[in-house]
TrEMBL record:
GO terms for biological process: retina development in camera-type eye. Signal peptide: none annotated. This is RD3 protein. InterPro entries: RD3. The lineage of its organism: Eukaryota, Metazoa, Chordata, Craniata, Vertebrata.
Length: 195
């Protein structure tokens, strides 16, 4: 038995499973939500400790042990948020995270309010994406319409127009028929209708 079979050097390297961009967006946004939830929980504990310290005048914070994570989002709400995250385009993932952090900093929410703020940021981003898609669609329609109208004008401009030969009968033509055409000035060329 060879040593190579023990160490499996001859086997091709295993490729890391390729995840779709949508899965990456969902995972990234949900990790941000869980991190912000933990931070809000930590800040809430600190506020409660400060309140107790002010109320009792004694700091017993060193005696208190906190559970690792006491608040968790319900499975139904988590599924709804993941579904909303899947509708976010990968290019909007960063701006959504920045907007979410900005909202968290502005409001300093309680732990229970973090998921609602996250939902509102996702809805705002989804509306913005929808508006941009509609604007792109209108721009494409406009460009297509302009291209066809330009092609019609170039087609029309290719048609040769002879100003001296016309099939349209006018009153002035009937009047001119009875008279002899006058000679033009020598610097002007003479145009005659060849009939």
């Amino acid at each position: 038995m060879s040593l190579a079979s023990w160490f499996r050097w001859n086997e091709p390297p295993h490729r890391i499973s390729q995840r779709s961009p949508t899965e990456m967006v969902v995972e990234t946004l949900m990790m941000e939500l869980s991190w912000q939830t933990k931070q809000a929980e930590k800040q809430q504990r600190e506020r409660e400790n400060e309140y107790r310290k002010i109320k009792t005048g004694v700091d017993y914070g060193w005696l208190v042990s906190y559970p690792k994570q006491s608040y968790d989002i319900s499975p139904g709400e988590r599924l709804q948020l993941e579904d909303m995250c899947s509708k976010i385009h990968p290019s909007y993932c960063g701006p959504v995270i920045l907007r979410f952090r900005q909202v968290i900093t502005e409001y300093e929410p309680e732990v229970q309010e973090v998921s609602r703020l996250f939902r509102s940021v996702l809805q705002e981003a989804a509306e913005k994406i929808k508006e941009e898609e509609e604007a792109k669609k209108l721009a494409r329609q406009w460009n297509t319409k302009n291209k066809t109208s330009l092609s019609l004008t170039t087609f029309k401009s290719r048609a040769k127009i002879s100003p001296f030969i016309s099939d349209i009968k006018t009153i002035s033509e009937d009047v001119e028929r009875g008279t002899q055409p006058t000679r033009r000035i020598w610097s002007m060329p003479e145009f005659r209708n060849a009939k």
